[in-house]
Amino acid sequence: MRFGLLLLFIVFPFAPVRAESVDYSSASEINSGRSGGALARYIKTFENDCLIIEIISVKGKLKVLESLNLCSFEGKPFSTGFADAGFQDITFKKDGIHLILSVTPLEPTGEQLRKCSIPIADGKMSGLHCSNPFEQK
To answer: Which of 77, 79, 101, 123 gives 38 a disulfide partner, CB atoms 3.0 to 4.6 angstroms apart?
Structure first.
């Protein structure tokens, strides 16, 4: 048990910051980078298809300044509005976070891929902006 807690603090160094709202023990992927002049972090969990994006303060004590919990698209929750949903190829760029959103509608139309971004400017995030579906190569 002690080794597990120690590993949690080594692998997830920001865990104590907001443990009450994000269950870091269920994280399947965490990464951070600089975007829009801010330190940003994303978190994927085993529990659901949501993607959590956070802006982290680097001055003084580390703390979450802003967070965005992406659990739906076009008004439909990932959990019940789609047969499958997920995020791929998440990258940190100067203008924000870029990613591929993969959604499979409940109707038998197949997987849809969309290029998306979450603009970050002056340490503030905008919402998710996505292109029309594109063909996978």
So the answer is: 123
Least confident window among 8-12, 47-51, 114-118, 122-126: 8-12
- Residue pointed to by tokens 């439909």: 76
- Secondary structure of the chain as H, E, C letters: CHHHHHHHHHHCCCHHHCCCCCCHHHEEEEEEEEECCEEEEEEEECCCCCEEEEEEECCCCCEEEEEEEECEECCEEHHHHEEEEEEEEEEEECCEEEEEEEEEECCCCCCEEEEEEEEEECCEECCCEECCCECCC
pLDDT band at 4 (very low <50, low <70, confident <90, very high): very low
